[in-house]
Amino acid sequence: MKVEIKNIHKHFGKVHANNDISMTIQPGTIQGILGENGAGKSTLMKILSGFYQADKGEIRLDGKLTRIKSPADAIKHGVGMLHQDPLDFPPMPVIDNLIIGQSGGLLPNRKVVRKQFEDLQARFNFKIDPDAYVDSLTVGERQQLEILRLLWLGAKVLILDEPTTGISASQKEMLFATLKILASQGMSVIFVSHKLDEVEQLCNQVAVFRQGKNVGQAMPPYRTPQLVQLMFGKSMELAPRIDSTSCDVLVHMKDLAVENYRLHISGINLDICKGEVIGLAGMEGSGQRLFLQACTGLRRTVGGKLYIGQRDFTGKPYHQFLNSQVSYVPASRLEEGLISGLSLTEHFILAGEQQGFIINRDKALKLTESRIKDFSIRGIPETRVESLSGGNQQRALLALLRSPLQLLLLEHPTRGLDIESSMWIWNMLKERCKTGTAIIFTSSDLDEVLHYSDRILVFFGGKVSNPLNAGSTTVDSLGQLIGGKGWEN
Amino acid sequence: MKTMTKTSSLWINTGFRIAAIVLALAFTSIVLLLSNARPFEAFANIINGSIGSSKGIANTLVAWVPLLLVTSGLLMTYATGMWNIGIEGQITLGAIFTTLALRLMQGTSVPPTLAIILSILAGILGGALWAGIVALLKIYGGVNEIFGGLGMNFVSTALTIWLIFGPWKRPGTGSMSGTEPFDTSLWLPQLEGLRISLWSVGIGIVGLLVVYFILQGTYFGLKLKAVGKNGRAAFLLGVPTTRYIMAAFLICGAFAGIAGAIQVTGVYHRLIPSISSGYGYLGMMVAMLVNFQALWAGVVALFFAALNIGSIQLPIVMKIDSTLSGVLQGALVLFFLLMEGARRTFLSKKRGK
Fold first, then answer.
1. How far is A284 from chain B (nearest CA, A)?
2. Do A3-232 and A249-482 agree at the fold level?
3. What's the CATH architecture for A3-232?
4. What is the pLDDT of residues B107-129, one digit of tens each?
5. Which residues of chain A have a CB within 8 Å of the CB of B292?
6. Between the CA atoms of B287, B288, B290 and B295, what dihedral angle is there, to the nearest 10 degrees?
7. What is the pLDDT, as a whole number, of residue A107?
8. Which of A365, A426, B22, B348 has an alpha carbon 20 to 30 Å from A480's alpha carbon atom?
9. What is the fold of A249-482?
């Protein structure tokens, strides 16, 4: 189905969420929509799928002017939207989930529906048991079910809003394959994302949104810097990678061993240079956290030696690491990183050097104000940390770090953040590297690991790989190691 | 815009607090009516007995000082998120140590003023020791401070009884009325004809101000709060959490010890079986009621002390039980907590809209 969007406007109070957006999507194409959080992508999709009404502008489906009044109306016109969270009924069988969405008819005809469902499955090689209960399906399978349901209801335009959050790499592959099949059968697919690589990999054309406007279209072959510039209105450059064969060694690990009740990891040998970034990759719970905590004294090592800046830190407690300029930024910001109920100012007082016994509030306030500005935290000194958004909490956590630092350990530094916050945070971190700080970080985002690390360690089932040079490693080879393949050598 | 919402939420808060007081009074009235007494007469008697005469005011202050000291100490442990229910035992140990010191110095050449000062210091030591044991059990033994404190309370009661009927018994046979009173030279100087000593009032007020200052203005106080609100994050930010928990317990125990010392040198002039008089538990209620804001503690503690003293009139004048003040105090705390919950629900609903 051909979708034409013309001069769409949408206001929310003072916010101009969609400002004169126009685009045309031909049948059989996968249209990418790229933009950071709040750029207006989701608003446009909700207008297309009937959740919102546009203030101005028109939508034409196959050339016919259409008013989409509700989501049910949208699917009648052939527009189906796949939500970030699957809209299904977990405690019911798959087949009943289909029937619920069907309009008309008093008695459901299970036999016919089952036949239609199996036919649809065969088209995409899906293997969902129609009698299985939805809560027994994986997130990826539920997504497939939702796609099938929309197709079964007659969708000819499929909208996917950030569909890859929360699904595994292999499920993502499968989803992309499905979308390509759909497009080849004449469907129009709209793929909304803030992840550059996904859009580049999948889409036939890309529209970039910024501050409510459609700021540019691009066709393959895509040039990443150009897309980044469109998204943010500015470009980002990375410093060249560090050559780990000839550098100042900061951290020296010799046959280091760590364990918890489940895992035992031994024989870690690694030299980390000043200013180097080491990325830790692996399935969640493969020992990355264990390793990070061992590097900061939060968990005792059970064998081997750990030297930081020539000094032996084996078995030393956390506060000695902290006093020697080793800092740890935990993943769960409000559980471990920040103190709910205390203000930003109070956090800066706590994290700073204690001077005397009595707090100098004026000085603390000035410091906080300057940090808020430097780290672009959206809040005031009196703001309690729990009322900050995730991105601002992460910025606050980084703002709390002391300077200078020898070694900085981060867990999922950009998890849940939009791409601009992520880039901003990495800019900050790379600035620190220039002063000689070495960074070790974990992330489940392989692109982040590949993009920002100098070298990478892969964790799998109690084993740690040799350091891989990030420059000569690909997502594929990394993915295989994470999945447990290629560990023989 | 911002100040507007601030004042309106202040009004909402005040409204809910007033509602709590009204509800508690209504509830107590019902209890009074059920026991065939006129509520207004009872309330009038309470007011009269507590602040109606200089004697009444003096007695109220006698109750206020230990309550204030205990509450001040508890604000420190509450700040770290600890429930120091062992406060009763800490008061008792303060009293025991003070009695011991005075017994040792009575009849010696130690000047009385010095003896009193030393005995109060001994009380501080006793209270801190008892609290320190609870903290050690908590930190190194993994014993919840509530159970540890409760256990230590029982030990302290048994210890008092044993001392009164054993080693420190009065000439002849021991009695529940306590040990032999000290010589008047070892009493905290009292106002002419009244039971109250201005020295003890001074100590109580200074104690509260010290706690207020620590919690509001110092690194130490802020770190205590950080430990209480999120111990893990505080630790990662570099606060040695166990040391701060220990410090909070020691300070709280010291305050309880002073309260016990004043009970001995300033009020009873001897050791009696229930020397703590329940001020520890009452202090926990006060600390909860003021929502851990130090300055309010003085006012609320005074109110509770007045209730306690005023209700002594009830059995004398109206032939009803003096435990009525307990009913009123309990009702106040419960309705305050209830209204606090209602206020939060109300505000979050309002915000949701």
1. 22
2. yes
3. 3-Layer(aba) Sandwich (3.40)
4. 888 899 999 999 999 999 999 99
5. none
6. 20
7. 67
8. A426
9. Rossmann fold (3.40.50)
